[in-house]
Amino acid sequence: MSTLAPRRNSRRTFLATSAAAGGGLILAGTRASGAVQGANDRVRIAVAGLNGRGKAHLSGWLGQKNVEIAYVIDPDANVLAKTLKNLEGKEAAKNVKGVADVREALDDPSLDAISVATPNHWHSLITIWAAQAGKHVYVEKPMSHDIAEGRVAVAAQEKYGVVVQHGTQRRSNSGIAGLHEALHTGKLPKLKIAYGYCCKPRGGIGVAKPEAPPKNLDWNLWKGPAEIDQYHDNYVHYDWHWFWPTGNGDLNNQGTHQLDVARWAIDPDQTHPIRTTAVGGRFKWDDQGETPNTMFSVAEYPNGQMVMFDVRNVNYDGYERQVYNEYYLEDGSRIVGEGNYKIYRPGSDQAEPLSLPQGDVTPGGNWGSFISAVRAGDPGMANGNALDAHYGCVLGHVMNNSYRLGEPAPVESIEFANDDATEHFERLHAIMRDGVGLSDADTRYTVGPTLEFDPGSERFTGNRADQANALLQDPQRKGFEIPAADKV
């Protein structure tokens, strides 16, 4: 067996795997291949999606020893041509091929891995196709665009034994891992609330009229599984984030990083939250975007621990950027920082340094750790595996689903059953009121229902369950369907 082929047994026991895919399995035109034969541990990788994060992927892989860029993939011919031009003269990309359709690369039996930096609605489908083809996967966050397809991606990884690593780079930070190990082993007081912030300055996107797609864009391939009636240029190439058929808002865009860290801090025997509520809106911009630019969410786990999260993506003079995590402990302490930490003891407003041992991660950063896992054929070496990715993404999906079922309500009527949640929402609103000029009298927030969620079945129960379960999986276009988890 090649040193690059998936192994049956992981060095860690938390991720069950099986043998690599055999030949002959067909899904939407993609045939699974057998074990890849590497040359001196060389890893041949394809990069799908060449704007934004795709550029970072190319840079990351070019910085790794004995890694070859075998394919670059994008449905925009102009973007593809520009990328190929930029790769000229680079030894690691001297034989690179440019293609529009990811399936062409996956059909190459000499390809070892694929790096996915496409829009969100493609992430799970490429991960599933790649696993079926016996290819390892580095997939940008969020791994899934909805709850159901994330579970299928996990099933595909488990069945075919490939390495799947999520693009949540903080999973490669040994300092963050060390804090979480201390929380989990009782070296610190028990965690009460894991808090995340995704507060980056952004502006509106205006209104783009429907028109014919540009000739350089293969619109059919760009849409892939997403059902979209008409093209407009707010989709391509970044603002698709703010439309539900293609994106997940900033909660599961930038916020996926902080959501993942927050869920990582929760006790390791907890999988999904059992209830969640979200309150927010799209204020100030008056544009055609659909996702909220302001949102407060709270999720409760079976053991009573909670995740709370702020999204605040407007901009104004004096805007405070907040993209980080905080930890509230049951003894009244609060921990701040990222990798290196300080702690506020109960009743004190003075932070003290918090010295902790480094945690267990595969070394090499997010790029190097993935290549090491691929060379070892060991899914357990992934810093942020498919199952961890699924748990973190679902946390954001259930929050978004509450918001999507919400109704407008005045500020003064909004109160949570949990006093901590009420306090934090009021803090967020005060920032919006004083910074953007939202008035207490006239502002209407979209207030989502409290949704009950069953971690075992990964379905909603109780109030509004039928409507919430309708959001478990997006509509899919013919030829780009997500299979059932037991059919991968």
UniProtKB/TrEMBL annotation:
Top EC class, one word: oxidoreductase
Organism domain of life: Bacteria
Report any Pfam family annotated for this entry: GFO_IDH_MocA_C2
Oxidoreductase among keywords: yes
Q: Where is the signal peptide?
A: none
> Could you tell me the keywords of this UniProt record?
Oxidoreductase
User: Which molecular function term from Gene Ontology is one that the record holds?
Assistant: inositol 2-dehydrogenase (NAD+) activity
Q: What's the protein here called?
A: Inositol 2-dehydrogenase/D-chiro-inositol 3-dehydrogenase
Q: Which organism is it from?
A: Alienimonas chondri
What lineage does the source organism belong to? Bacteria, Pseudomonadati, Planctomycetota, Planctomycetia, Planctomycetales
